[in-house]
Amino acid sequence: MKRNGKSADTVCPVARSTEVVGDRWTVLVLRELYMGASRFEEIQIQTEATPQMLATRLKSLEADGMVERHPYNEKPLRYEYRLTEKGKAFYPVIQALRAWGETWVKREDEEIAVRFTHRVCGHEVGLDGMCPVCGVPVERRDLDATLSATFAREREERREAFKAAKG
After folding, report:
1. Three-state SS at 123
2. SS3 84
3. What are the strands of the beta sheet with 143-147, ordered from one edge?
4. pLDDT tens for residues 72-119?
């Protein structure tokens, strides 16, 4: 999809990929979809994007084949957003950003924000996307997530602030 009237005039896959997911807001939208959010309001609350910004990112992700809209309410018409196979295939990139962030951009006194447990064996999966017990690579659908108390509180505070702002 062209962004700002331009497209990557290159065969470089990195440049072409950043045409689809090359901004903070798009990556945060995808993070929320991987965390199970599917409705506009919840994605907006957790990304803290403006409605216009979020609508633009979701439309772009839909046009790029990363998400699909599905109606969940007829009157008024409301949609939820679901990852396509292409969107699901981006998960290792999110996992790599998570691992890098946990290693390099958090304070030493902070705990891991999200811990993942392999559903098959019940053991925690580290930051490398491999089950240390089974020795197999895992995908998001193979994992149960547990938020740290701090991250869970942060997300709940966003919900409460959003509700208070709406009146």
Report:
1. coil
2. coil
3. 124-125, 114-118, 143-147
4. 999 999 999 999 999 999 999 999 999 999 999 999 899 999 999 999
Domain extent at residue 1? 1-89
Residue 77 and residue 57 share a domain: yes
Q: Which of 89, 116, 146 is the last residue of a domain?
A: 89
Peptide bond into 137 cis (omega under 30): no
Task: Note the pLDDT tens digit of each residue in 110-128.
Answer: 999 999 999 999 999 988 8
Record the tokens describing residue 122, joined without a space: 């019940």
Query: How far, in Å, CA of 138 to CA of 156, rounded?
Result: 28
Query: What length does the chain have?
Result: 167
User: How many other CB atoms sit within 10 Å of the CB of residue 150?
Assistant: 11
Q: How far is CA 120 from CA 36, 137, 139, 141, in A?
A: 20, 12, 12, 11
Which positions ≥6 away from 9 have C-beta within 8 Å? none
CA distance 148 to 167: 29
